[in-house]
Every structure is written in structure tokens, then in C-alpha cells.
# Entry
Amino acid sequence: MDYYSNRMQTLIEELSRLPGVGAKSAQRLAFHIVNMPVESVEKLAGAMTDARKSIRYCKRCCTLTDREYCPICSSPSRDQSTIMVVENPRDLAAYEKTGKYDGLYHVLHGAISPALGIGPSDIRLKELMARLASEDIKEVIIATNSSLEGETTAMYISKLIKPTGIRVSRIASGVPVGGDLEYIDEVTLLRALEGRVEL
Amino acid sequence: MDYYSNRMQTLIEELSRLPGVGAKSAQRLAFHIVNMPVESVEKLAGAMTDARKSIRYCKRCCTLTDREYCPICSSPSRDQSTIMVVENPRDLAAYEKTGKYDGLYHVLHGAISPALGIGPSDIRLKELMARLASEDIKEVIIATNSSLEGETTAMYISKLIKPTGIRVSRIASGVPVGGDLEYIDEVTLLRALEGRVEL
# Structure
């Protein structure tokens, strides 16, 4: 494989370590990168190292941020009595994009998975319980994924919180809006039926 | 969109400029990157800038390399009398992977495309003709893609070379019509090479 330059090879190898980047796309990206203006490559490379070096967990909700407290936790306009629990910062971002949720978040950085050996102490649950003890929280909305791990985590957290008297809720599962019934799996269809609401 | 840190936003924006990287995958990659060890991020960022800064065209075949002459052009074990003409370095890589072609290459960096306004002077054709005048070449194998542009380029080149008396061939159409060389399996590539026909 020495028909490219050594540095091209190194770049291709480094790129192919990224998730979802196979050998072919690493090669394609590498050729794109060496054809970019030098300043653009430096901007991209700098953005990576800057982001990595500045990133940390928000002291309150554990999402990724470059400050002590993330923008949401530092905002006085957010409802300080509601916490939505999500598995990762991308899920937080998904709910923020709706623009309709104005409470706080708590990011677990994972979900309980006996199969993968991920227990309650491997996710940011201790931090959530500490918040419930110190902050004046009225409701915890559990928005973990509706996968096996997400459901397990939701059940576990709800059992932990129930004794505190704080309201615990779970986001509804059912047919996605705009979804065509015939393309939706049976488990979802059944869940939607069970969760039907009076009109 | 200020629920991430500014530096995360910058990283996501920079990543989404890459080809084939949409908003979702840029976000996914960014989260992966900030979760990587600092040294790994520095290695990746460094590989990009190093590759970009060192890259140039081989003085002989015009492929991308970090030396004056690429490894293939500098190798005395390659057949110095045969040139395979390809559109880009990825196509060169595709043929090298077969391990069965031992001649030289010439990389055009594009193909003639009247629709896109790319003419013969926009690709490295002048350099090819200079080689044919100065090197002792017995055969030129045209391995441009079997797309409209690739075929147009092949015809153009063959007409240019014919008067010199040098043998000109075209890789066989074992390559599917409309196919991109870099995505084709090695057996097909070899079959196409073996079945090449005189133009």
C-alpha cells in the first residue's frame, strides 16, 4: 500500500478509525482533505483539538459543554423544577430542536445494559439523585430510548425516584407523527394501542 | 443551537463541510471526537495538516505524493514502457490493489466534460504528451471511467496518440457502464485489463 505517500496512508488510517467511516470513505475523505485549501484543513484540525481540549461535563446536568455549567443549566428562563433524563447529548439536542421543552435536562451518558455489563453505577445516575436531593424538582421526565436498554433504565430510575415523592413520567411511545401504519413494527403498534388516550 | 458549547458547534460545522457528511453524522462524529483521548485527536488533526501540507503532484505521473517522484515512478522494478491513464489517484489505487499491473500510470485529475466546461487543457493531458515525447513508451492503456466523460476522454486521447505510432488500448468493458472504477471489485478490474482492445 505504498502507492500513496506515507502521510496519505497515515491520514487514511486515522480517518478509518472514526465511527461509520469505512476504508473507502476514509480514502475519499483523505483525498478531499488534501485538495482543500491549507487554511480550511487547519480550521478543521483546529476545531477538533479545540473542542476536545475544552470539553467537559456540565457540573449540573452532565451534558458536554466547554463551561462549568452548560448554557441550559445557566439560563434563568428555563423551568428549574423539571428535569428530562436522556441517554446522551444528541438526545438532548433532539428535544431542544423542538423548541417546546423549557425545563432542565440530565444526561446519563449511556443506559443500563446487563448484556453489555453496563450497570447503574456506569451511567450518571448518582449525579441525578444528588440533584433531586439538593434542587427543588417537581417532575422527572424519563426520555431514554424505547429500546430494551432504555426501558430497563427508565424502570430502574422510576423505582429509585418514586420513594422521594417526586413525580416521575415517561415520554409516550407510539406511532410516529406522519408515520404510515403499514410500515410500523408490531411492538410499536401494540404500544400505541395500549397507550391510547380518550378523545 | 447554543445547547452545545460554541467549540462543539464549530466542530460540527467544519465536519459537515466534508463530502458525504450530513448534519446528523457531523454531530455523531463530533461527539465521538470529544470522547476520544486527547492524543488520538491530536494524531488525527496532525495527520490532516501533515498530509495536506506535504502533498503535491508527482513530477512524472501527476499522482498525489509527498515526494518529487511517487513510489511507483521511482521504482526500477516497474515496466517503464507502459502507461496506464486514469482519472484520479483513487483509480490508480484501485488498479494497484489488483497487484497484477506492473507498468506506470498517468493521472489526469479529471475527465473531459463539455457539459461541465472541462476541456482537454483542464486535465493533465499536456503532461502525458510530454512523457510520450521524452520517455520510451510502447503502450498507453486508457483506464478512464466508463462514463460519458471517461469515454469521451478515452477517444480524445487515443486520437491524440495514434499519430505517434505508440500502441493505445482501452480497458475492456468488463467494467459496468456508468461504473466508477474505485468501487469495482479486483476480479472485474483484472478481467477488464486482460480483455483490453486496441483502439
